[in-house]
Amino acid sequence: MLSIKGEDSLKKTVALLLCLVTVALALSGCVKKEDPGTEMNVHMNRPTTFDPAVAYSDQASAQFLSFLYQGLFTLNSKGELKNAMCKKYTVKDNVIEFTLNDTCWSDGTRVDADDYVYAWKRLLNPEFQSEAASLLFYIKNAKEVKNGDEPIDNLCLYASGNSIIRVELVDASLVDKFIYNTASVALFPLREDIVNKISVTEPFYDSKTNPDTGESILKGNEFLTTYSWSTLSTVMVSCGPFYAKRVAFYPDSGNATVILERNKYYYRDTGETSDDPLQKEVVPFRVNIEFSTILDMSEAGTEAYGRYTSGTLSELNNLPMLYNSNLPLANRTKDDSVRDLHATYTYFFNVKNPMFEKSEVRNALSAVLDREKIASIAVYGKAATGLVTDGVFYTTRKTSFREKAGNVMGASMTVDQAKSVIAASGAETGAIKLSVRDNESEIAIAEYVKSVWEQLGYTVEIEVLKIRSMKYYQVVGKKKDTEEYDVQSVYDGLTRDLYLEKYQSGEFDVIGVQYSMMSTDPFASLSQFAAKFSGNAYDFTESAESFEEVTHITGYDSEAYNKLMADYFETSDDDKRAEILVEAEKLLMKDLPVSPLYFMQSGSVSNARLKNVTYTY
Asked: 64-73, 134-143, 606-615: which has the minimum mean pLDDT?
């Protein structure tokens, strides 16, 4: 991720921003600092959401959002904490006070402490679904609030005036961990008035067909209400260096276009002075971004590759299938810049499905897969040795959780061995729907998995989940002297992320997930598999049958695992906490509600014109 820092760095140098290389697939050339009016054309992997609270399941979204938002801190390429929106902070026992820099949203409204408090409380709302809530469980009463045991007013998180955020933690020993957590994309600030701008009180439909059939009605107005604000450029605002002037998705091709323009209020000195960091540092003026799924040797891929080799494009990034087709592995390493993405591509099993309720079946389905082959299909990646990736700390920045935990994936199996295990379990084979994003790399991996699992006696259907762009219609009555409904277009340009809907519903057999490490703290990535820490949404509607605690999205619920997470909070010793999390990952990989496949990486090639580029952690 490109390093976009706070006010201090704006007064020094942010040449990094000028080249806009965060996750750029294709870059039209480096921009000179003294040219504040430059316009650039960029090609990137398509993000699936612009909502920071749910971007953790999609690498492209998490990386892209750093253009639009800024958190309290960022991490440099070495994992060192650097101030961003946080000007300074003080610690007294278990209480932290963060003081914000002075800057504004793209509509000129001041960025206030209340914006952070709102965004964080939104994650902890029991009816809001997000595993990123685990980042906030170090706050006193946070877990109780998320589970509906305490009212939100009892959360020890406050805004003191416009610029101070006050946080009281469960224990003073958690201070450093929590501060590192605030560098996460999921904890970016949000404006309450913007998120709640679209309010749905009547049924909405995605076509003009007769609503009586039920065929076109949306599955719950809540999804439209919760996420629509983040797809309408007329609604969105940003507190980062750019804002989204226009967002357009093209459902037929699966592509999209976003026009970013410079946020003229980003650390702007509004006085009459020539020393204006906006004019000096935040260039280009406009960035035209074309999104698509990962390019292969289609017409678009061939064109992009040709433009790079001819020097028209300064950088190509995240083009695994293209490079797999054109550049021998031995030739790639000389020019390519390969970065760890701190994400594990993982298959989630629905353990409530009778086919997957036995751990020995899940283990057989996982162990029969060749992870080295899967990594080679992805081109840029390493075979997974656990769920937690390299780069996550064991206790401190200089210690590695992955190195301490080792390889916890267990022994591999042949097809015949896996068949025997499944037969001995008494479980029946059947039809599996394997759900993945509309992404060439994920589809290619799914094709390989399908070929293996079908040798075990299963039939596998690959379900490719896309983003749909559409108008939404509201019924306003029936036409006079007819049974036809009178509908009107209410929102034009909204999108439905069918992947996110499928994932959050839990109604999948097996689903591919880009499982991002939301923090350098392994607790954030491991705790959510315990019921009290899942981040899953409670159903408090009148029709709900009960208000029992919710489990992880897979349905996994282990008493032993739940106890480990409870024990984690019973000690203030960092070494003991780390040992507990190592044991937790081992248990998780034994029960295997999720099957890690490969550690994701990003590979890019750059020509000589692109210089002085660094990345965040």
From this structure: 606-615
Residue 314 has pLDDT above 70, yes or no: no
Contact 67, 241 (CB under 8 A): yes
* Residue the block writes with tokens 């997974």: 384
Across 247-265, average pLDDT:
70
Who has greater pLDDT, 43 or 585? 585
How far apart (Å, rounded) are the C-alpha atoms in residues 445 and 512?
Answer: 10
The SS3 call for residue 29 is coil
The two tokens of residue 578 are 């780390």
Q: What is the dihedral of CA 411, 415, 421, 427, to 10 degrees?
A: 130
Q: Which token pair is 580?
A: 């507990």
Between CA 317 and CA 45 the distance in angstroms is 9
How distant, in Å, are the alpha carbons of 89, 277, 280, 449 from that of 617? Answer: 22, 25, 26, 31
Tokens of 609: 């014109």
Report how far residue 47's alpha carbon sits from residue 256's, in angstroms, rounded to the nearest whole number: 9
Half-sphere exposure at residue 352, Cβ-oriented, CA atoms within 13 angstroms: 10
Percent residues over pLDDT 90 in the chain:
47
pLDDT of residue 359 exceeding 70? yes
Cβ 140 vs Cβ 149: under 8 Å: no
CA dihedral of 229, 230, 233, 234, whole degrees rounded to 10:
10
**How buried is residue 87: exposed, middle or buried, by Cβ count under 10 Å (0-12/13-18/19+)?**
middle
**Distance from C-alpha of 18 to C-alpha of 405, rounded to nearest angstrom:** 40
3-class DSSP state for residue 170?
coil
Tokens 């992404």 identify what position?
439
Per-residue pLDDT tens over the stretch 190-235: 999 988 876 544 444 444 444 444 444 443 344 444 456 776 667 7
**pLDDT above 70: residue 483:** no
Using alpha carbons, select from 90, 110, 93 the residue that is nearest to residue 101.
Answer: 110
Rounded Cα–Cα distance for residues 286 and 253 (Å): 24
CA-to-CA separations, 21 to 30, 116, 161, 306, in angstroms, rounded: 10, 27, 36, 19
